[in-house]
Amino acid sequence: MSHAIQDQRPVRPHRSTADSGLTRGGLPRWAPLGIGAASAALGIVIGLVFDLHSKVQWGLIAALLFIAITYTASAVVENRRQAKDRVATSLIWVCFLLAVIPLLSLIWTTVSRGVKALNADFLSHSMNGVTSFEQGGGVYHALLGTIEQVALATLIAAPIGLLTAVYLVEYGKGRLAKAVTFFVDVMTGIPSIVAGLFILTTWNLMLGFGPSGFAGAMALSILMMPVVVRSTEEMLKLVPNELREAALALGVPKWRMILKVVLPTAIGGIATGLMLAVARIAGETAPIMLLVFGSQLINGNPFEGAQSSLPLYIWEQYKVGSDASYDRAWAAALVLIAFVMILNLVARGIARWKAPKTGR
Predict the structure, then answer these.
(1) 103, 116, 263, 325 — which has fewest CB within 10 A?
(2) Tens digits of residue pLDDT in 330-345
(3) CA dist 105 to 67, 108, 159, 280, Å?
(4) What is the pTM of this model?
């Protein structure tokens, strides 16, 4: 009887996946590249027809056309859901290009103009005896000053920032931790000239010390500390609590757990944050102008006498306005970029070397 009832049930027509609109014909793989090329061509044509002199306007028109054509083609060939997905992907690519193009343009301009004066003599000589309008001279004194000032600032800021972050994550509770977090956030937005004025008032005017690279390093360390604290704090928060609990369950003291488990686990992110802080201070000019004064001579003692630095050297040379000084300024800018890149590579190598091994 049950079989007869089952046989009498109406059979519903089966709806295919294609009829439901979930899948239809898809765009070929070369479609994004083809649409991008067509959009670029249309952007150029529109720019020429309407006499738009700015290439930026051409690029923005091409980007809008790329998004519009992508949505239309996907909606017609595929479906609206897929079209919205492709529009979101296109927006990501457009934003990526908008961020990369100025960076590549900056690097290209710096390299193309900096290589004119960049050579072995430029890296091994100072501006002693060379007037700003003459050819020749070098950046050795400024490079030496930058290395010493950045190194001293890192020696001051890195331990303080690291220990502050460890306190906030591992020990900090109550009003003191909230106050420290608040002041760290406030220090993040302090202009560099304010840090320079603070050191000038306390170290130079009140205590009577003269201009020196160490004074500039103290101002740079003030700018560096909040970046180190915030980046290290976020990296320590990413360490799983299970690792801490496992170490404490074995009877390991908390300080040893932090030293042997937490910090090695987060060493990669900590090193990256430290390099971000170094890059933040490597290009500062205002504190150096106030506290270091600049010098055309080689001064290897950062604790006595005026020193130069790469940012200050670039500003001094560009201020002169001659062709030779412009070449030296661009070459010094290229040296500064290379200096920051080398520091980043070294930090990544140290972080990978010290990071805990994942294999057996």
Answers:
(1) 103
(2) 999 999 999 988 888 8
(3) 24, 5, 37, 21
(4) 0.79
